[in-house]
TrEMBL record:
Residues 26-236 form the YgjP-like metallopeptidase domain. This is M48 family metallopeptidase. PANTHER family: UNCHARACTERIZED PROTEIN YGJP (PTHR30399), UTP PYROPHOSPHATASE (PTHR30399:SF1). Pfam families: YgjP-like (PF01863). InterPro entries: UTP_pyrophosphatase-like, YgjP-like_metallopeptidase.
């Protein structure tokens, strides 16, 4: 499929938008994905000014949508007894107890958090400790699993890399430097195995193809059995940060 031509244009009251012009687009539309630059999908037979006029007509809707997404992003996640949270190898259990501090226990695939039952679980300090406990558990899980799995996939597909580092990344699932050092987000442990593998293979492909041009997607397609775009679309359902 031909690659769309992209132009970044500043629109008053909206900021920077990505105008993507390509034959795949049959009609003008706007796509807003949390954490990404809003995209304007433009059919190849439309000129740029026509696309800008279209955005101006939709400006109030775009502004409203961006505000709602930002409010949702800033809304704190509250972990309590009803929270359903699972990683690749553990699930969270929060419970009140007769105690004066917060304790975390890890056993048999359960991360149990006990908090003082005379204090609301929504108290900022308790929530901060729960979040810190989850991040630390994810970090340990990721350090145990991801480097080994990356090595397995690299050998299978014939890639080489230098160093792998596990980090609590804010906006990316992973990255590959110009010298082929790979960074991986510890929050990968919240994804299904097929998507973990997809991200690892994605970064391994960057050891050969440094951008997201046709060569990169052809290579990624080859390594994923022709499912690169499908897996990439599935990744949009997940956020890099839980909180």
């Amino acid at each position: 499929m031909p690659t769309a031509k992209t132009r970044l244009i500043h629109i008053d009251d909206l900021g920077e938008l990505a105008f993507m012009i390509g034959r795949r687009y049959k009609r003008m539309s706007i796509r807003i994905i949390p954490g990404e630059t809003p995209r304007v999908l433009v059919p190849y037979f439309c000129d740029l000014q026509e696309a800008i006029d279209f955005v101006n007509l939709k400006k109030e809707w775009i502004k409203s949508t961006l505000i709602k997404l930002e409010e949702k992003r800033l809304r704190p996640t509250v972990f309590d007894e009803n929270t359903e949270f699972k990683s690749r190898s553990f699930s969270l259990r929060v419970e009140g107890a007769t105690r004066n501090d917060v304790r975390l226990f890890y056993y048999n695939g359960i991360l149990k958090v006990q908090y003082p039952d005379h204090i609301p679980v929504s108290h900022p300090r308790i929530q901060e400790l729960i979040r810190s406990g989850i991040v630390e558990a994810l970090r340990r899980e990721a350090k145990h699993f991801l480097p080994k799995r990356l090595e397995e996939l690299a050998k299978y597909h014939g890639f080489t890399y230098r160093v792998v580092t596990i980090k609590n990344l804010k906006s990316r699932w992973g990255s590959c430097s110009t010298v082929n050092n790979i960074n991986l987000n510890l929050h990968l442990m919240r994804l299904p195995d097929r998507l973990i593998d997809y991200v690892l293979i994605h970064e391994l492909c960057h050891t050969v193809e440094k951008n997201h041009g046709p060569g990169f997607w052809n290579l990624l397609d080859k390594c994923t059995g022709g499912k690169a775009r499908q897996l990439d679309a599935e990744m949009k359902k997940y956020r890099t940060q839980l909180f």
